[in-house]
Amino acid sequence: MQSVRNDIHTSSIPALCQSCESRHQGICAALNAQQLSALSKHTRRVHHHAGDQLLADAEPITSYGNVLHGVVKLSKILEDGRQQVVGLQFAPDLLGRLFANESRVTAEAASDVDICMIPKLALEALVRQNPELEHRVMLQTLRELDEARDWMVTLGRKTAAEKVASFLYLIASHIDPGGEVTTFDLPLSRADIGDFLGLTIETVSRQMSKLKADNVIEIENYRHVLVPDLARLRVRCG
């Protein structure tokens, strides 16, 4: 009987949501089948290639994006063109500042990304009606605040070696949480990594080479990274 009830419950969930890897994570985990079905009538899944701009600074917000796959780069650009990378988003993060009228950052696809786009009014109405959804959005916001504070320590107090190790650990721990052996493609260029860490390109490359020489990481084809022991990498973060 339990199996029958589960089949009925599952069958009422939209097919697109059933095949979504992020359905049981992030904001969608707070929604029941009926809410998912209602919301899916307004959503659309889009694919962006690395380098595509997703949102511009000061651009009016008309929709939010649930990151399904890939990495999104958040940055601030000064009037003279200088750029500062201020954050990265991974699945199942919510792209866009809830209840804000305009964006405060520029969002760009750091790698190929898949995003489920949700109209602003539809999601905000659902948040007002669903305390659990509101709670999940709040938890994500607080997590991002904690990560921003941790990154302030990284930028302000850590050595160049510790900064590069911390960056790699950030990627590895989000790509494969709890994993011991992790592989990933670097979502940022050496120049962007330098912007993110406040280091020169040469320093970034030198510190990565040192981590490779010490067998903390392996690098193939310049961008593919293998971390054989995440605990060893974490120690190098300081």
From TrEMBL:
Keywords: DNA-binding, Transcription, Transcription regulation
HTH crp-type domain segment(s): 158-231
Record bears the keyword DNA-binding: yes
InterPro entries per UniProt: cNMP-bd_dom (IPR000595), cNMP-bd_dom_sf (IPR018490), Env_Response_Regulators (IPR050397), HTH_CRP (IPR012318), RmlC-like_jellyroll (IPR014710), Tscrpt_reg_HTH_Crp-type_CS (IPR018335), WH-like_DNA-bd_sf (IPR036388), WH_DNA-bd_sf (IPR036390)
Superkingdom, taxonomy of origin: Bacteria
Pfam families in UniProt: cNMP_binding (PF00027), HTH_Crp_2 (PF13545)
Gene Ontology CC: cytosol
Presence of keyword Transmembrane helix: no
Gene Ontology MF annotations: DNA binding; DNA-binding transcription factor activity
Entry protein name: Transcriptional regulator
Organism: Devosia psychrophila
